[in-house]
């Protein structure tokens, strides 16, 4: 009898172990998923913008018109009919070149008439000179006879009067000749003016006359031609608003475009800020002259220009979107911003960063560290006192003998008050770092004082850095802005996420 083999009922020993591993893996995956989702939900509740490193370019936009650097209007000082015009638009001319001719016949006739009058005056002069010679001889004869008492004294007197009259006639004839000569010379000058010549080397921009046209120069000289001296150098006259004119200085770079060449950008430089303000509809603007190099002859006079004056440029700085500077938490009290601190907070860190970049001796560094530690301690004490004052009731503050806190508002003295506060802040810092200043030479002292002045005048703001899904306030120094991004400096680094807003909760 054969035995049927029984199947092996023993389970492999590794199965329970494998099942436990699988269960642990599933639990870990679930925990990771929910933890990551929670983190994503926390970060997804905020709109953020990263801190970037780049360039900030501050520019003022304006419009203007291109024109030649020097433009000469050529007119006519005499009246008459134009016989011929020898140049046309865009012709290049040289100094002294004939541009047009006016009919000279009337002036030639006046010259002939003047010459005839001069000849007549010369004949009258010769006649007067002959009469003068006769009068002199008659007077000499009678003067000799009266000495011998052969004629009366009255005859001598009459001869003397006749002599004087003859001399006056000669002088009159000579004056008549000079007068006629001057009149003829004036006519010759006008005759020369019938030929219109170019006063400069340049290019003819406009021509206002045609052959056969009559020119009337009665009250003012009519404009016949307009000549641009040199189109290789041109200028732009921009109209800059009074709110921006304080930032414009000679030497600043200007970039501009013209509609004639929309795909090309041109360069210029501020040459002059003129004081002749213009008021139009209560809007005050100032003319700004920009010099432009037009060596290739591309730009044309009269083109409308859309220009940007670069008033400031900061390269390779930390910058952030302006939305991060505008954000304030919804639950923040209106009385004080978190992390804002007393006025001047953050200056110590900025000053420490500046001093760290200076080439100082070990003794100077030690003196600065000592003064810095003491200044930080005093600032912390001031912060605690201010915090205690804010939390105290008005009765408690009055009982402590402290004056009520006052908020400095705007008004006519706001700017002066801010300047006085900056001055007091600078004096306080000079006192706090008196030991450090005593170790510096004149050059180092001036550098530190300039930096302190810049730091005291800098604007500061609170931004909120996203850390572990929560916004943390950070006080930063605000610099130049181009309207969309702003330079910042402080306890931030490139790549930090700053909160710009809160997302609406999903329903």
Structure notes:
The chain is an alpha+beta fold. The protein has 4 domains: 61-69 and 226-315, Efflux pump adaptor protein, beta barrel domain (Elongation Factor Tu (Ef-tu), domain 3, Beta Barrel); 76-103 and 194-225, Beta Barrel (OB fold (Dihydrolipoamide Acetyltransferase, E2P)), CATH 2.40.50; 104-193; 317-385 and 418-502, no CATH class. It has helices at residues 14-44, 105-147, 153-193, 322-326, 347-356, 362-391, 394-399, 414-432, 434-438, 442-457, and strands spanning 46-50, 52-68, 71-75, 80-85, 92-93, 98-102, 195-197, 202-207, 214-215, 223-228, 233-241, 253-258, 261-273, 278-280, 283-293, 304-321, 459-467, 470-481, 485-490, 497-502. A 6-stranded antiparallel β-barrel has the order 2-11-15-13-12-16. A 4-stranded antiparallel sheet has the order 3-10-8-5, with no helix packed on it. A 4-stranded antiparallel sheet has the order 7-6-4-9. Strand 12 and strand 13 (261-273) form a beta hairpin. Helix 5 (347-356) packs antiparallel against helix 10 (442-457) and helix 8 (414-432) crosses helix 10 (442-457). The longest helix is centred in the first third of the chain and has 43 residues, at 105-147. It is elongated. The chain starts with 13 loop residues before the first helix and ends in a 5-residue tail after the last strand.
